[in-house]
Description:
about 45% helix; 6-stranded parallel beta sheet; single chain; about 5% strand; alpha/beta
Amino acid sequence: xxxxxxxxxxxxxxxxxxxxxxxxxxxxxxxxxxxxxxxxxxxxxxxxxxxxxxxxxxxxxxxxxxxxxxxxxxxxxxxxxxxxxxxxxxxxxxxxxxxxxxxxxxxxxxxxxxxxxxxxxxxxxxxxxxxxxxxxxxxxxxxxxxxxxxxxxxxxxxxxxxxxxxxxxxxxxxxxxxxxxxxxxxxxxxxxxxxxxxxxxxxxxxxxxxxxxxxxxxxxxxxxxxxxxxxxxxxxxxxxxxxxxxxxxx
Length: 250
C-alpha cells in the first residue's frame, strides 16, 4: 500500500491536528521519500515509519511536539541535519537497520538537546572499535544507546511512552481488584458451607432425639403389653391352687 493511501486510512476522517500518534509501518514510499506528512500534524508526538523504503528524511516537516521517531529497517545513510532543525524536542530516535557507517554521520544529532535514547542496531557503525564510548562522547545528552546506558544498565519501562505506562498501571489495579473480589467470594462460600454443616448437625440431632423418643415409647408399649400376660399367669396359678384344695377336701 502506498504511503499516501495508508495515511488517509489512518486519519479516518479526522483532521491532522487531532493526531498524536501516526503509524505507517510497512507501506511503500515513493522514491524513498516521506509523503503526505505536513506541518498540519502539529500535535503529533509519535511517528513510526518502519520498513517503508526510505533513503532520505529530507521531506519530514517541522513538528514541534514530536518526541519519538521510528525509522528502523530503511536505507537511510545520512542527512540527519533535517531532524536537528525540525524536530527540536525529539527524545527517542530509532535508526536500527539503516546504512550508517561512520560516526561522523551522526554528529548532527548533537543539536537535539532533549535526545535521551538512540538505537543503531544492525547498522555498520556498531562494528567500529570503541563504538559505544565514541557515541556517548559525541552525544553527551544521551542516556541510552541501543537500550543500555553507559554502565550497561538496561533501559527501564518508565523510559517508554507515558500513555502505555498508565494503561499498564490501570490494568494492574483492575486485576488486583478482581483478585480481592474473588477472595471475598471464596470466604463467603466457605461461611455458607459452615452454616450448612451446622444446620445439618441440628437437623440430625433433632432426628436422633426423635428416634430415641420413639424407642422409649416402643419399650413402654412392650412393658404394657407384657403386664396383662403376667397378670393372667398369676390368676391362672391361683385358680390351679384352688382346684388342688378342692380335690384334697374330697
